[in-house]
Automatic annotation (TrEMBL):
Transmembrane intervals: none
Domain of life: Eukaryota
All copies of domain tRNA-splicing endonuclease subunit Sen54 N-terminal, residue ranges: 42-98
Family to which the UniProt record says this protein belongs: Belongs to the SEN54 family.
Keywords in alphabetical order: tRNA processing
GO cellular component: tRNA-intron endonuclease complex
Protein known as: tRNA-splicing endonuclease subunit Sen54 N-terminal domain-containing protein
Biological-process GO terms, alphabetical: tRNA-type intron splice site recognition and cleavage
Protein's UniProt keywords contain tRNA processing: yes
UniProt-listed PANTHER family: TRNA-SPLICING ENDONUCLEASE SUBUNIT SEN54
Pfam families: tRNA_int_end_N2 (PF12928)
Organismal lineage: Eukaryota, Viridiplantae, Streptophyta, Embryophyta, Tracheophyta
Keyword tRNA processing: yes
């Protein structure tokens, strides 16, 4: 597994979760986030719906359309949650309708207002990786409960620059990623995303090792 210095290098129930993983859609065409594809999706009328939860800074999916959930969002107790980066990306490409506590539709500007500081930096990295077709997950946050048990990862939903919650990572695992940057005289190297090559057979319950890890440095 390779750690990538982004700034310097590029200038429920287990039963329900199993069902979510094994459901087969009639449309078997794989989705690739190329620029052309994103352009086509911006006019999509049949959108997924999600409810924004301010307390955790994530969106809980209430209605799924298409297959994007197979490689996006984490599964907890049979529900799918999107991070703020995933939520904004899906809204930008026109496939997600986001609702507030009153059921009112939120605009892109409403979510842009929530993305500031470290959040915006993370979003730009996330958006670029998705536009290249990669599968991107939050580093240290398990895709599903089954994945968490097998890889000793955190089942916490929230992991962000502004979060006070501690991610449950094995110390030597973290050191193996951040360690190489110490010799480069970089004050802080923080792993943020686990990145996987495009894979039509990707499973959240068993994602395997990421192809590389994105680190942000200060």
């Amino acid at each position: 597994m390779e750690a990538v210095d982004w700034e310097n290098s590029s200038g429920g129930s287990s039963g329900t979760e199993a069902y979510l993983q094994d459901t087969k859609y009639e449309d078997d065409e794989e989705l690739h986030f190329t620029s052309g594809f994103i352009s086509q999706l911006q006019f999509r009328k049949d959108k997924s719906r999600a409810h924004w939860i301010n307390e955790i800074g994530m969106a809980e999916v209430v209605e799924n359309k298409g297959k994007l959930w197979r490689t996006m969002g984490v599964v907890r107790s049979g529900e799918i949650y999107y991070s703020i980066e995933e939520t904004l990306f899906l809204m930008e490409i026109g496939v997600l309708l986001l609702l507030d506590d009153n059921g009112t539709s939120l605009s892109l500007n409403d979510i842009y207002a929530k993305v500031s500081g470290g959040y915006w930096e993370l979003f730009e990295v996330y958006r670029h990786l998705k536009s290249l077709g990669y599968i991107v997950g939050q580093h240290g946050i398990a895709w599903s409960i089954k994945d968490a048990k097998s890889n000793h990862q955190s089942v916490s939903l929230h992991c962000s620059p502004q979060s006070s919650k501690v991610v449950d990572l094995e110390s030597e695992d973290e050191s193996s990623i951040v360690g190489p940057f110490n010799n480069m005289h970089i004050n802080e190297a923080r792993p943020v995303f686990d990145v996987y090559l495009p894979n039509s057979k990707f499973r959240k319950s068993s994602p395997g090792d990421p192809s590389f890890v994105i680190c942000l440095t200060r």
